[in-house]
């Protein structure tokens, strides 16, 4: 079984290195095929591991080698396959495998085809390191690794020029990549502080040792550690106020959006909270803030999705919103429900993104849903997939989203927190509305794309087939909720609904479903016939506020970026005038000294002898002075 | 009293002779005065009781080294006076005198005589050559042998360096080379 | 009475004369002569210190200095002859082929 852990972990690395060999060469089909195969190997190993753990309840812990052994600090490269990590491994490798196969079709005409696979596999490797590490340091390595891969992949089309937008001053893939990277750095600082706090107080970063020490730690220390760790999670999972990078990250290729910015990397923050649940469960204040912030982000992101016109950005906002749901669940103590929603969300959101990729591919990179419509004729398979995924996202019985989202809302009710409960229900309705607004605008109604001279076409067959596992899982994943509960409570604290909630569960489910179906019907009424734009709505303050993302990017630009740029310019000038000038001065002195003393090199031995005598005098003076001093 | 008179006479003579060596334009004069100065240095050695050293000085310097110079000079054209640009005198005087002053100051003024102790005390029962012999073949045996090997190497080196092309006439080569230089 | 300092001052003067010669003269042969003067000045100081501190080590050093001086002359004169054969001069001003 140990070898399976290594296979699951290192197959993506081998894939990345293999693809990297061809990075600079023209497209080679077999690179994509072999990468996908290796990813499938990794998935198979993960699945066998999951089966093994489920059947024998044996946690597999391997230690690859010592990494840092300095004084009292001992950090090994240790990996663990337990209930939580194996769940993540299966989800990550499954989605990655599908995305790899999908990319063979999607990146068909890209000249950096091989490079893309190298990055994508490297990302999967980093993600696996993140989830499989048995200590916080290894988690941090993976954390930074996925950050770098995300940067590489968002900026994959780095050669694209800046495009001026009405919301942000300008945006290009490299701009978006830098934004994502820098925002994550800010949060990672918080994460590092958390790790330092833990190490300082416990003397180890191993999960088991740290968690065993929790009863001995002061509450203030735990609160500080939990808060700092959550700041790190906020960055990676794009929670308010560090959320703007996620929608801008849609500048990257769509498979990247599906894999990294929907299914896996952005859930790393949730994973961290789940992984460190012993810390968070003893710090109720921090947990409450997490739940409140998660709920806020769920609503906040959903509201922005209501009016957005960009196909991928709508899905990105919905990802933000669903991440908010996960944090709400985790903050309320229902860690296993959060993990369940994470897995279910990974399936249907990846499917949704890949479907959007199909549309984009078929529409020649057009993303404005106002320019689409009536695509269901041209793209039947994609229509089916996206419809399914949207139903799952909206939480319609009996699809995956229904079970997981419903459980979260029930949890909010169970905790007696009515504000969160109400907001989450309203958000569920909004989710349904914006999902189907997008579906109807894209696939139903009049065929507006004719005006723009676009001839849509369906994606390759094998790509559609490759997407089918996700589609199936988006439908059936929810049915395994009970089984998953039994599997995961070996490790995570179980969350039982109270008797009272249990009685009302049916009503809650009905209310949620009513909101979801209501949202869909509203979208149907408004958009099924075709696009109806009203000047009045679009001119209203609320519409403008939402479509401009609450003016947050503008505020960041004005309040943070601009002053920081000014400060940097000032620092640059100081650097030129003081630091550089000093360095230059030293160089100038040496140059001048060389110029002046070059005359000494006359080649005349007699001159040299004279200088030698001068040197001897100097040495004698030094000798005498030192004798006097002594 | 006798020692004092001897010291002063020797000092004046040595300084004078060496000054001639340094300032003379004629190499022969310089060499002659140098040889005489060496003899007087041996006199100083006798004065301070280093009999054996004095004898060695006479044999090695006045006998061997000066003879070597004399032979060496046969290769050079020394009948004419030297024409050389000499470095400006004030400069040289300042440097030379300051070095002398500094060194004298160092040894005479700064070094603490109390701190110096004899690592190889002179045994008053032996004559000086006896004592030197004892020291050379006991404590300084290894340096002595190394010095012997060094002298052997120097001898071989000297012969090889100076003996190259000994069979060809130097004057003829000189003429040819002079002509070649003129052509250039 | 003649003390150690007399000898040291004398050695200093002789050394200065030798050094002035080294600095002043441009003829290689004269440089050799000057070097000999400096070496002898040191020897005088050694012998005097040996006497006044009642220590034989000074004389030993003087011996080795003489040995080194003899070797130096042997090798040096050989080199001088080679230089003279090649360049036909012993003047340093004419031998400045290492000008940088």
Defining traits:
heterotrimer, B: 184 residues, mainly alpha, Four Helix Bundle (Hemerythrin (Met), subunit A), globular, C: 100 residues, Helix Hairpins, 3 helices, 77% helix
Describe the overall structure:
The complex is a heterotrimer of chains A (630), B (184) and C (100). Helices cover 73% and strands 4% of the residues of chain A. Chain A is mainly alpha-helical and 630 residues long. Chain A folds into four domains: 1-133; 135-282, no CATH class; 288-426 and 453-505, no CATH class; 556-628. The termini of chain A are far apart. Chain B has helices at residues 2-23, 27-47, 51-73, 89-110, 128-137, 141-163, 170-183. The longest helix of chain B is centred in the middle third of the chain and has 23 residues, at 51-73. Chain C has 100 residues and is mainly α. Chain C has a single domain (4-87), classed as Orthogonal Bundle (Helix Hairpins), CATH 1.10.287.3510. Chain C is 77% helix and 0% strand. Chain C contains three helices and no strands. The mean pLDDT of chain C is 86. The chains are: A mainly alpha (630), B mainly alpha (184), C mainly alpha (100). The interface between B and C is large, with 88 and 71 residues.
* Separation, N- and C-terminal Cα atoms of chain C: 54 Å
Rough shape of chain A? globular
Q: Sheet bearing the most strands of chain C, described?
A: none
* Ends distance of chain A: 73 Å
The CATH level-2 architecture of chain C is identified as Orthogonal Bundle
How much of the polypeptide of chain C forms β-strand, as a percent range? Answer: under 5%
- Tell me the domain tally of chain C: 1
Unreliable sequence segments of chain A: none
DSSP helix count of chain C?
3
Taken in chain order, the helices and strands of chain A follow as HHEEHHHEEHHHHHHHHHHHHHHHHHHHH
Mean pLDDT of chain A: 87
Q: Can you count the helices of chain A?
A: 25
Radius of gyration of chain A: 29 Å
Topology, number of strands of chain A: 4
Q: What's the CATH class label of chain C? A: Mainly Alpha
Strand order of the largest sheet of chain A: 1-2
Structural class, from secondary structure content of chain A? mainly alpha
């Amino acid at each position: 079984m140990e070898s399976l852990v290594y296979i699951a972990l290192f197959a993506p690395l081998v894939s990345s290195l293999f693809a990297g060999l061809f990075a600079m060469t023209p497209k080679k089909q077999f690179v994509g095929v072999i990468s996908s195969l290796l990813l499938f190997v990794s998935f198979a190993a993960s699945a066998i591991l999951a089966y093994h753990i489920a059947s024998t309840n044996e946690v597999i812990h391997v230690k690859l080698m010592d990494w840092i052994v300095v004084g009292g600090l001992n950090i090994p490269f240790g990996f663990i396959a337990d209930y939580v990590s194996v769940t993540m491994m299966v989800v990550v490798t499954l989605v990655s495998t599908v995305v790899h196969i999908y990319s063979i079709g999607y990146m068909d005409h890209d000249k950096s085809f091989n490079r893309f696979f190298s990055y994508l596999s490297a990302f999967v490797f980093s993600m696996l390191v993140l989830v499989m590490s048995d200590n916080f340091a290894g988690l941090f390595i993976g954390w930074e690794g996925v950050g770098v891969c995300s940067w590489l992949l968002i900026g994959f089309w780095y050669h694209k020029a800046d495009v001026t937008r009405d919301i942000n001053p300008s945006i290009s893939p490299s701009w978006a990549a830098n934004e994502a990277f820098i925002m994550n750095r800010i949060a990672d600082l918080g994460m590092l502080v958390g790790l330092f706090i833990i190490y300082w107080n416990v003397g180890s970063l191993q999960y088991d040792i740290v968690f065993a020490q929790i009863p001995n730690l002061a509450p203030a220390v735990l609160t500080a550690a939990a808060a700092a760790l959550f700041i790190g999670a906020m960055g990676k999972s794009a929670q308010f106020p560090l959320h703007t990078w996620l929608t801008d990250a849609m500048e990257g290729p769509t498979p990247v959006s599906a894999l990294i910015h929907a299914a896996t990397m952005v859930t790393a923050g949730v994973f961290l909270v789940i992984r460190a649940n012993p810390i968070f469960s003893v710090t109720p204040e921090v947990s409450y803030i997490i739940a409140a912030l998660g709920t806020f982000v769920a609503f906040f992101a959903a509201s922005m999705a209501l009016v957005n016109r960009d196909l991928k950005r709508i899905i990105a906002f919905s990802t933000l919103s669903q991440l908010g749901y996960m944090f709400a669940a985790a903050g309320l103590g229902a860690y296993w429900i959060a993990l369940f929603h994470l897995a279910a969300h990974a399936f249907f959101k990846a499917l949704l993104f890949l479907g959007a990729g199909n549309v984009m591919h078929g529409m020649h990179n057009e993303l404005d849903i106002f320019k689409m419509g009536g695509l269901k004729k041209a793209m039947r398979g994609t229509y089916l997939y996206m419809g399914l995924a949207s139903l799952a996202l909206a939480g319609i019985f009996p699809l995956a989203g229904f079970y997981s989202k419903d459980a979260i809302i029930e949890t909010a009710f169970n905790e007696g927190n009515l504000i969160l409960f109400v907001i989450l229900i309203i958000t569920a309705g909004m989710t349904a509305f914006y999902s189907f607004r997008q579906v109807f605008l894209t696939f139903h109604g009049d065929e507006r794309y004719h005006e723009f001279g676009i001839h849509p076409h369906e994606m390759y067959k094998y790509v559609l087939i490759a997407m089918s596992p996700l589609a199936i899982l988006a439908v059936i994943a929810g049915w395994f909720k009970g089984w998953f509960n039994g599997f995961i409570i070996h490790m995570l604290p179980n969350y039982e609904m109270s008797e009272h909630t249990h009685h009302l569960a049916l009503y809650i489910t009905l209310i949620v479903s009513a909101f979801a179906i209501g949202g869909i019907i509203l979208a149907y009424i408004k958009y099924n016939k075709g696009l109806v734009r009203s000047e009045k709505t679009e001119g209203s303050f609320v519409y403008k506020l939402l479509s401009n993302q609450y003016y947050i990017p503008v505020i960041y630009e004005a309040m943070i970026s601009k002053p920081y740029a000014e400060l940097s310019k000032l620092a640059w000038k100081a650097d030129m005038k003081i630091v550089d000038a000093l360095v230059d001065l030293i160089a100038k002195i040496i140059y001048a000294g060389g110029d002046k003393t070059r005359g000494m090199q006359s080649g005349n031995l007699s001159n040299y002898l004279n200088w030698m005598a001068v040197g001897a005098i100097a040495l004698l003076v030094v000798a005498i002075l030192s004798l006097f001093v002594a | 009293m006798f020692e004092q008179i001897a010291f002063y006479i020797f000092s004046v003579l040595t300084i004078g002779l060496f000054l001639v060596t340094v300032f003379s334009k004629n190499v022969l004069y310089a060499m002659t005065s140098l040889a005489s100065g060496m003899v007087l240095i041996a006199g100083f050695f006798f004065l301070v009781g280093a009999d054996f050293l004095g004898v060695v000085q006479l044999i090695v310097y006045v006998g061997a080294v000066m003879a070597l110079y004399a032979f060496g000079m046969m290769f050079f054209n020394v009948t004419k006076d030297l024409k050389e640009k000499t470095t400006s005198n004030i400069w040289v005087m300042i440097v030379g005198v300051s070095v002398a002053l500094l060194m004298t100051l160092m040894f005479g003024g700064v070094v603490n005589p109390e701190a110096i102790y004899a690592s190889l005390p002179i045994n008053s029962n032996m004559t000086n050559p006896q004592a030197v012999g004892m020291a050379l073949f006991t404590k300084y045996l290894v340096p002595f042998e190394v010095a012997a090997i060094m002298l052997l190497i120097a001898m071989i080196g000297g012969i090889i360096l100076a003996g190259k092309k000994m069979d060809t006439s130097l004057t003829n080569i000189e003429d040819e080379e002079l002509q070649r230089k003129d052509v250039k | 009475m003649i003390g150690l300092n007399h000898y040291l001052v004398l050695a200093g003067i002789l050394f200065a004369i030798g050094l002035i010669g080294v600095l002043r003269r441009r003829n290689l042969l004269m440089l050799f002569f000057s070097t000999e003067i400096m070496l002898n000045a040191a020897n005088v100081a050694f012998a005097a210190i040996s006497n006044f501190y009642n220590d034989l080590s000074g004389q030993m050093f003087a011996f080795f200095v003489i040995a080194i001086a003899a070797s130096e002359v042997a090798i040096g004169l050989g080199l001088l002859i080679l230089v003279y054969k090649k360049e036909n001069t012993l003047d340093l001003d004419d031998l400045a082929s290492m000008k940088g």
